[in-house]
Amino acid sequence: MHRSPIPFGLFKHLAKWLALACGVAVLAGSAAALFLFSLSWVSSTFSSHPWLLWLLPFAGFFVGWMYLRFGQSVEAGNNLLLDEIHDTKRVIPLRMVPLVLGGTLISHLFGASVGREGTAVQMGGALADQLTRVFQLSNDDRRILLMAGISAGFASVFGTPIGAAVFGLEVLATGRLRYEALLPCIIAAIVGDQVALMWGVHHDYFTITLFPSISAWSLGVMIVCGAIFGLTARAFAEVIHSISSFMKRRIHYSPLRPFIGGLIIALLVGLGFFEADRYLGLGIPVILEAFDAPLSITDSIGKFFFTVLSLGAGFKGGEVTPLFFIGATLGNALSPLFDMPFAFLAGIGFVAVFAGAANTPLASTLMAMELFGAEIGVFAATACIVSYLFSGHSGIYGSQRIGDGKH
Amino acid sequence: MHRSPIPFGLFKHLAKWLALACGVAVLAGSAAALFLFSLSWVSSTFSSHPWLLWLLPFAGFFVGWMYLRFGQSVEAGNNLLLDEIHDTKRVIPLRMVPLVLGGTLISHLFGASVGREGTAVQMGGALADQLTRVFQLSNDDRRILLMAGISAGFASVFGTPIGAAVFGLEVLATGRLRYEALLPCIIAAIVGDQVALMWGVHHDYFTITLFPSISAWSLGVMIVCGAIFGLTARAFAEVIHSISSFMKRRIHYSPLRPFIGGLIIALLVGLGFFEADRYLGLGIPVILEAFDAPLSITDSIGKFFFTVLSLGAGFKGGEVTPLFFIGATLGNALSPLFDMPFAFLAGIGFVAVFAGAANTPLASTLMAMELFGAEIGVFAATACIVSYLFSGHSGIYGSQRIGDGKH
Question: What is the least distance, in Å, from the CA of B303 to any CA of chain A?
C-alpha cells in the first residue's frame, strides 16, 4: 500500500510490468506468427495430399520418440505451465518451444485432429520464462510473467485479446480469479496480438447477422443448451483422460501410443468410414460452414471422436480449436430443435463448450463479445456459465486447481 | 462434487437458483422501474422550478431526520449490504427500501448532486433479503441472494446486465473474484433489466462513432489517462470520506449535516458562482453532451465539487452516475491534449473513473462493451485496469474488503 499522494512505487511497478509484458508479447506474438504461417502451409499441404494420412502412424511414432528422447521434462505441456505457476520449481526448459512447434506441425501435416492454442500457449509461456533467467526475477514475478505468456500466446492465435487476458487469469483454478496479474496479462495479450498482426497473421471472421431477442424462451434455450454444451465438454475431457491413461497402462513404450492412435485414425478414414477432410486437421473450413449453412449432428460427433483419439494417443497441438469445432457444429445442429438462428447457436456452442472444458466462463464470454459483437453477451454469458457448472470438476487441464467448488 | 454421469444435484441447484434469481429480479427490477419513473418526474420538476434549490438545506434536514428517527439500522446503505455478505448477521430491514427511495427522490427534487445506483442496489439487496425470511435460507444461500440483488438493482438502472452481474461479484473485495454466485448474479441481472424494460424504463444511449486504431500511441494514452482517471477516483473517494468524517466530528446532531451541506450548495449556486443546472441533480444531459461536443475541464471539476459535498454531507442516491459524469467530461476535456476523438475518450473516462472508485475493473470493461460496443474493449480494459491500480486501496465502498493487494 502506498501512502504518499503521488504513488512513486506504482509508477515503478507500472514501468517494470509494461516493459516485461511487452517483451513477453514480442516473443510470444512472433513465435505464434511463425507457427501460424507454418501451420497454414502444413494444413494446405495435407488437404492437397490426402495420402499423407497413411503416414500418420509413423508421424505419431516420430513425435512420441522425439518427446521420449528430448522432451521428458516438457511433456506435461500446458499442465507444466500451470504447475509452475502454482508451485514454482525451475525455469521451463526452452526446448519446449521447438518440441511443441515441431510436434504440432507434424501432427497437422499428417492429419491428426488437434488444435493450435496449446502450442501457442506453451511457446508463450516457455519464452516468457526465459526472461526470468535474464532479469533474475523473484518467484512471484515469475508466476505473473508465465500468466502473461499464456495470455499473449492465446491472444496471438485467436485475435481476441481481452478474452485471452482473462483466460490467463482464469485458467489456473476453477471458481476463482485473482487480480495480481491483471495488467501484465492485458498488456501482453493486446501487444502479442498486435505483434502477430504486424507479422501478417490474419484471423478468421465468423459472422452472426441474426440474434434472437432476449425472452424467457431464448434465455431458457441458453440454459438447456448450456447444460448440453457443458456435458459435452465434460465427456470430452473425461474421454481424453480415459484413453490416455488406458494407453499408458497398456503400452509402455510411449512412441507406440500415437503410432497406434494414428493407425486407427488412418484405417477408419482411409477405408472410407469417414470423410477425412471434414474431421482431420484444424477444421477451420467446417467451423466457418457452421456459421453459413445448417449441418448435421454427425459433424460434432465425428470431430469429437477423432480429436479425443488424436489427443488421447499423444498428438500435439491442443484442445481449443477442436472444441470450437465441436461446439459450433453441435450448436448449429441443435438450432432447428430450439427454433434458433443456426449461426447464432453455432456461435454460442463455439464459446460454451470451450468454457466448460477449460473452466473459463468469463474469458469465453469476453471472447464471444470480441468475435461476434457485444450483442451476443447476454446469451453467451448465460450459456458459458451453465456449461461451466455442468462440466464437472475435471476439465481439459489436469493441473488446474479447484479454487472453489462450482455449486 | 458429483460422481454420477447425470448430475441430479446440479439440476436441483439450477432449478432453485433460477427460481430465486427470477424472484429477486422481479422485485428489484420493479422497484427500480418505480424509482426511475419517480426520479425522472423529480428531475424535470427541479429543472423547471430552479427555486427549489433554496429549500435544499431543509430537504437535507428532513432526510437526515428521517434516517435518525427511523433509519439508524440501515444508514450504512451499500456498506451494510457488503458487511452482511461478508459476515451475515441479520436480515436487512425492509425499511431500507422506502427510506433510500424517499431520501434519494427528495435529494434530487431539491437539487443535490447525487446518483441513483445506490438506491437501486439497496432496494435490490433489501428486497432480495426478504426472500431469506420467506424461504428460510442458509447463510451461504443468503450471501449469494444478496449478491444477486445487487446485480439485479445495478442492471435495471443502467441496462448493462453483464457488467452488473460481474459488479455484484467484484464489488465485495478488491483483487479477487469468486464464482459461487456466478449463475444467480447473471440471471438476476438479465431478468431484472428485462423486468424494468417491461415496465417501460428506457436507458440513455451514448454513441461513439470514431475509435482510434490500436497502436503504441493509443495504448500509451490509455495508460496515462487510466492513471489520471484512477487518481481522480482516489481523490473522489478520499474527499467524500474526509468531508463526512469532518462533519461527523464537528456536528453531532446528524440532520444538521445535510442541512449545512445543502446550505453551502444553495448559496454557491444561488449567488451565481456556478451554473445550477449543469452540476446539480443526476446530470444526464451533460453526460450526453460529453459524447457530442468538446467541453471544458470545469465541468468535471464542478461536478466533483458538488458531488463530494452532497454525498459527504449525507444526501442519498449513490456515487456512480456522478462518477460517470466526472469521467466522461474529464475524458472529453483531455481529448485534445492526446489527439483523441472526444466522444471516445469521454466513453473511456465514463467507465474508468468508476472502475477505480468502485475497484471493479472487469465489470467496468464489460459495461463499456455493452454501452459502446465490443470495439472499445481493448482500450477500456487497459484504462480501467490502470485506473484500478492507481485508485488506492480505499474506494467509495468502505466495507469492501482487501482481498489481495493491488501490486
Answer: 22
pLDDT tens digit sequence for A141-155: 999 999 999 999 999
Cell of B178: 469468486
Q: What is the ipTM of this complex?
A: 0.94
B365 in reach of chain A (CB within 8 A): yes
Which chain A residues touch B407 with a CB distance below 8 Å?
9-10, 13, 180
- Counting Cα atoms < 13 Å in the Cβ hemisphere of A121 gives 28
**Residues of chain A neighbouring B165 (CB-CB closer than 8 A):** 381
A219 closest CB neighbour out of B14, B190, B388: B190
How far apart, in whole angstroms, are the C-alpha atoms of residue B233 and residue B241? 12
Cβ pair A7:B374 closer than 8 A = no
Structural domain includes residue A7: no
B42 & B148 share domain: yes
Length reported for chain A: 407
Contacts of B382 in chain A (CB under 8 A): 186-187, 190
- The alpha-carbon gap from B97 to the nearest alpha carbon of chain A, in Å, equals 28
Cβ neighbours of B178 in A, within 8 Å:
175-177, 403-404
| pLDDT tens readout for residues A259-312 | 999 999 999 888 877 676 789 999 999 999 999 999 999 999 999 999 999 999
Closest chain B CA to residue A378 = B162
**A389 chain-B contacts, CB cut-off 8 A:** 10, 13-14, 182-183
- Cβ-defined contact of B377 to A362 (cutoff 8 Å): no
B313, B319, B322, B327: CA torsion to nearest 10: 130
Q: Which of A198, A231, A251 is the last residue of a domain?
A: A198
Residues B143 and B257 occupy one common structural domain: no
Question: For residue B245, is it within any domain?
Answer: yes
Q: Are residues A38 and A184 in the same domain?
A: yes
State whether B90 and B223 are in the same domain.
no
Output the domain CATH number for residue A263: 1.10.3080.10
Cell of B69: 428517527
| Residue A375: DSSP 8-state | G
- What gap in Å lies between CA A358 and CA A79, rounded to an integer? 12
pLDDT at A56 exceeding the cut of 80:
yes
B186 touches chain A (CB under 8 A): yes
Which is nearest to A150 in space by CA: A13, A24, A251, A302? A24
B160 and B283 together in one domain: no
Report how many domains make up chain A. Answer: 2
Clarify whether residues A317 and A367 are in a common domain.
yes
Full domain range(s) for residue A64: 12-198
Final residue belonging to a domain, choices A151, A166, A198:
A198
* CA torsion angle B345 B351 B356 B361 (round to 10): -120
